[in-house]
Amino acid sequence: MDRQIIMQHLAQAERHAADGEIIAVRQKELIAEIERQGHDAANARASLVLFKDLQRMHSADASRLRREAQKARSQEYRAKAEACEREACEVRDPKVKRQLNGIAQQWRRFANLADRDEL
User: Fold this and answer.
1) What is the pTM of this model?
2) Where are the domains of the chain?
3) CA 94 to CA 91: how far, in whole Å?
4) Are the CB atoms for 64 and 9 separated by under 8 Å?
5) Which residues have C-beta within 8 Å of that of residue 110, sequence separation ≥ 6?
């Protein structure tokens, strides 16, 4: 999947996770109010369990998308390195060839840093 699309999905998953936190807090407040009024809060508690399950799913989805984005970024950097190396093979000027190979080496370093999430 394209990194930009992954990032859009990640932003959406993170919004859903944040919204889920707010909903869970409100639901807990609602349960407390229902119980203060002496009513049965079983249905509200069951809804809270569902909200929490959904919250876990959104959080897991966000974590998965973060890993995918990291992988896509490192793949993007490796592709740039390969493009520089291909260009270096076609260039006759030794100075330009060294520069392109040096740039390719930097892209590979960036890719390795991205693999370790150090960028």
Assistant:
1) 0.68
2) 3-115
3) 8
4) no
5) 77, 119
For the stretch 23-80, pLDDT in tens is 999 999 999 999 999 999 999 999 999 999 998 999 999 999 998 998 899 999 999 9
Sign of CA dihedral 100, 103, 104, 105: positive
* Planar angle of CA 59, 72, 68, nearest 5 degrees: 20
Residues comprising the chain, all counted: 119
Q: How many CB atoms lie within 10 A of CB 39?
A: 11
Instruction: Find where tokens 């508690």 sit.
Output: 45
Q: What is the C-alpha separation between 22 and 52, in angstroms, rounded?
A: 11
Residue position matching structure tokens 């974590």: 63
3 state DSSP class of 92: coil
